[in-house]
Design a protein that fits this description.
Blueprint (H helix, E strand, L loop, with lengths): L26 H15 L7 H8 L13 H26 L4 H18 L1 H8 L10 H18 L2 H19 L7 H4 L4 H13 L5
Helix pairs in contact: 1-2, 3-4, 3-5, 3-6, 4-5, 4-7, 4-9, 6-7
Length: 208
Amino acid sequence: MDNPNPPLSMSSTPEPPRGRTYHHGDLRNALLDSARRILEEESLADLSLRAVARRAGVSHAAPYRHFPNHEALLVELAKEGFAELREGIAEAAAASSSVESDRIAKIGAAYMRFVARRPELASLMFGPQLPNRDAFPELGIAADAIGNEIGTALHDSALGLAVWASVHGLAMLILRNVIDLGQRKSGLDVLPSRAEIILRSLFSTRRD
């Protein structure tokens, strides 16, 4: 009598591995997405090529196809951050009134909103994790674009620099937990409105 359940042949085609797999061509984006999620859910200190590969579900060697080292990954993330921040500033300026103090306040709120939503990314963009910035001129260009965007929105490059210095200094003091604008109790989401109040007070005096 034939066996109703014959053994599987050794030549049978194996099932594909379970878990996340990526088609050729989107590995780079998958790695960047994993890196972004590590920054959002964990911390900058937890971000490594090995951690990115593990979260993306690929081999530890896979990230090196697109990022030769850890620094290259950080540079790409920082560039993305600068582009996102610039876009937020431009949108805030376009939506604000023609009153200078109002535009300053809205720009500052947009800057602080980015910092509140992406604290680890902001720390990367402006922190010591990228000590060789001169080797990546695109980073300098991306950073300069922030000041240029603010200056253009205010029709005054010097004022734009003053506003950028003010809101950025405020943001870094908050990220380093030096000052408390209510974020220790209520979280970072309170920062945009607090930044608006401070910047209105600081720049409300009519200039000659």
